[in-house]
Design a protein that fits this description.
alpha+beta; 15 strands; D-Maltodextrin-Binding Protein, domain 2; 8-stranded mixed sheet; 7 helices; globular; binds magnesium ion; binds 1,6-di-O-phosphono-beta-D-fructofuranose; about 325 residues; Fructose-1,6-Bisphosphatase, Chain A, domain 1; about 25% strand
Length: about 325
């Protein structure tokens, strides 16, 4: 990722977000940027369990629910969004378009996009006060769909500063988001041409080492000889390190969980789209993540993303 002064055209965004591009996509990321300071401000009081489980059978924190509600309200209110799905909701929400009886919906004419979010990614980091994020995918199709139907994807990273990375057909942009002191946000572009560095430096792999299949362990042994370990337990934070320094992130297939942990619609597809637009690659071990055909909204998938040669080596190792 380029440094703050690297792009001579970088600077504050005009009202309404980035110029040009798809207006619905711009409106989605305007809404996401606008909620980011509110989500951040709400976290200190929401580090406790909510007492519920989500559709993936995971315990939900109060922060997960708060972010889900805030983002759900903001995104379903947008013109041009027909369907809203979230990691924290069992079924899809009709956001103004026609929704089919099975809950996964059909998007309506003139309101074609479906937005999928992981409201708080890495929320187990809330207790230990480490980085977390929000992941967003904008699909031009009813969900579940493949990542080929993404028209844009992005994430917010709640780190020492709040940043947002957005990828669409024009490329990948990184912004800093700050409250403007007037109830709104000030957004400044760090770069509008984010590219993975050619010389990779870091790796981060999830799951317990004894649970890794032997072929992945052998690959990891090679990689740890070449790169520095950077694993923080939030996909968004760990992928952001890969985008910044070059390298590889994986939440692999595990011996007892061949689908891994991460969810295709909310996590793997948007991250694969962003990394590929930034010049990298993403695979489930066999095929491009964006080609994985989903059966259900909450499907999981192994995810390996980063510099192309590292991902190609991984594929060869798992073969
Ligand atoms: O705690 P583990 O097993 O390392 O898992 C970490 C992974 O799980 C996640 O936290 C799952 O995301 P959620 O927090 O949205 O459920 C990823 O962000 C991260 O890569
Ligand atoms: Mg997540
Ligand atoms: Mg989450």
């Amino acid at each position: 990722m380029a440094g703050p002064d690297s792009d001579p055209d970088a600077g504050p965004l005009p009202d309404g977000g980035a110029p040009g591009g798809d207006p619905v996509v711009a409106a989605v990321f305007d809404a996401v940027a606008a909620t980011a300071p509110e989500i951040r401000a709400a976290l200190p009081g929401r580090r406790v369990e909510s007492g519920t489980e989500n559709a993936s059978g995971e315990s939900v924190l109060a922060g997960d629910l708060y972010a889900d509600e805030l983002l759900g309200d903001a995104i379903t209110a947008l013109d041009g969004v027909g369907l809203f799905v979230s990691e924290e909701r069992e079924t899809a929400v009709d956001a103004g378009g026609a929704v089919g009886g099975d809950g996964t919906g059909e998007t309506a004419d003139g309101s074609p996009y479906a937005v999928a979010i992981d409201p708080l990614d890495g929320s187990s980091n809330l207790r230990s006060n480490n980085a977390m994020g929000t992941v967003v995918g904008v699909y031009d199709a009813p969900l579940p769909a493949t990542g080929r139907d993404l028209v844009a994807a992005g994430y917010v990273l709640y780190g020492p500063i709040t940043t947002m990375v957005v990828a669409d057909e024009a490329g990948v942009r990184e912004e800093v988001i700050e409250p403007d002191g007037d109830g709104g946000v000030e957004r400044s572009v760090v770069t509008d041409d984010l590219r993975l560095p050619d010389d990779p430096l870091v790796y981060g792999f999830g799951g317990r080492v004894p649970d890794w299949p032997d072929a992945f362990t052998a690959y990891a042994r090679e990689v740890e000889d070449e790169l520095k370990l950077r694993y923080g337990g939030a996909m968004v934070g760990d992928v952001n390190q890969v985008l910044t320094y070059g390298g590889v992130f994986a939440y692999p297939a595990l011996v007892d969980a061949p689908e891994g942990k991460l969810r295709l619609s909310f996590e793997a597809n948007p991250i694969a789209y962003i990394v590929e637009r930034a010049g990298g690659a993403a695979t489930d071990g066999e095929r491009d993540i964006l080609d994985v055909e989903p059966d259900g909204l909450h499907d999981r998938v192994p995810l390996y993303v980063g510099n192309e040669d590292l991902v190609e080596r991984l594929k060869a190792a798992l073969d």
